[in-house]
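Anyone else keep sequences and structure tokens together like this?

Example one:
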Amino acid sequence: MKSWTKNKQVIRDLFIVIGITDAPQPWFPPEVREIIKGGKVFSGGKRHHEIVAPLLPEGAEWIDITVPLEKVFEKFRSPLPNRGGALVIFASGDPLFFGLANTLRREFPEAEIQVFPTFNSLQMLAHKLVMPYHDMRIVSLTGRPWQEFDRALIERAPKIGVLTDKEHTPAAIAQRMLEYGYTDYTMHVGEHLGNPQEERITSLTLEEAAEKSFAMPNCLVLDGSSVERSRSFGIPESSFALLDGREKMITKMPIRLLTLQALELPKRHVFWDIGACTGSVSIEARLLFPHLHIEAFEIRPECEAIIKENARRFGAPEINVHIGDFCLTPDPSPVGEGRPDAVFIGGHGGKLKEIMAKVCEVLAPGGVIVMNSVVAPKVTTDSQKLWNEVCEELGLRQEPPMRILLDEHHPITILKCKK
């Protein structure tokens, strides 16, 4: 973009971002009307253009904001001959509330940005419901994954405001909540907020919402003021769906919790569970540390249904399950949200060296690997000795092992190393 002069000072770029609602005849304060009147180049979504077109000066140029945004930003940077002083952009609601102004700050760090906000859609919906919103947990699913929404559910947020899109619709949200057992919420949906002719507010159960379509744009509030907030610390192994009904195949709850402690999960971001079996470690990690991105690897195909059943049973969405031999995975690094910084090896099938070598290729600096070694009469391979050899070969720094004897079970040693 061209520089321009204001009070004899050179400004590299100036974006004026004006928030609007869905009102067909928007009201603007006098200052904003003067900005529009004197503007030459404007931008916004197609819906915004339809709303403000009667207010634009004759000969105004309009840049549609469409995806991919990179092409739009190229136009923003182009030295347009009639640009004059500033680029005036119309955006929905408050442009700093999951809005375009945040993106402009990132893409044009040297630019000057002025914002003239109006109420965002969730504020407008709360006003219509006469619902206090100072304690509302806000989640945007507009072009974003489920991660933060799932986290709000797991943490039992009593009031969740959700920005939707064409994929994350009220029906899709309700279906996800029902699938994972988060049923004690009422859904309030606002459609075309700010437009007197089309605005509609609907309050309904999740079962009703799951079968209903709503006009776009819309947003919603989930009211779970009666939701039970407590959650048990640790899940008994008898509560899980098991592989062939064998309770011995699952990591015992006390060992599971100590293993999660060794993984330092509160400060980790991407957790891999290799040899997940029933998914007990992944599920416990998801519920206790819902900020994590979790990838579960398991070689046995029959375990996929078991892991997913347990995830639904305990309300642990977004555990990504990968079935197959981990050692034969061409390149596991692109999985999920990037390089792991915490890895648990729950089973290795005699391929510990190959698994650890592959993990080390993608493990983030400072990442941790944990494995539990069982000392039992029928175990012919000394897994702790093999662990020690692998750590030395790969240059991994070991931490003191933790030996646990639980009831009548064989002793277990929790092994830990860092990159």
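And example two:
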Amino acid sequence: MAEPKRVPFDHDTPIDVAKYHRFQWEPAQDCHVLLFPEGMVKLPGSGGEIFKRIDGTRSLNAIVAALQEAFPGAPDLRSDVVDFLEVAHGNGWIRPRASA
């Protein structure tokens, strides 16, 4: 199986859910999901917690800080969040917010 495509981005730039994508709780799946025209991605556990904080105003650094506050005992949280968001960016699920 191919390695997921990771696309780094500036950790201080606010990020948003990509256009035509919608993040929501899906009772039938019993987890958060990301819906888009081509399908759906299940985001159980930490993936859902990360996506809950993607609001167009928070940067990767701000999301990590919010998660560290919510889950103070989680080990190596920053590395996991960076990995997840770089793969999400590579898949086109998130985008850095354009400057106004």
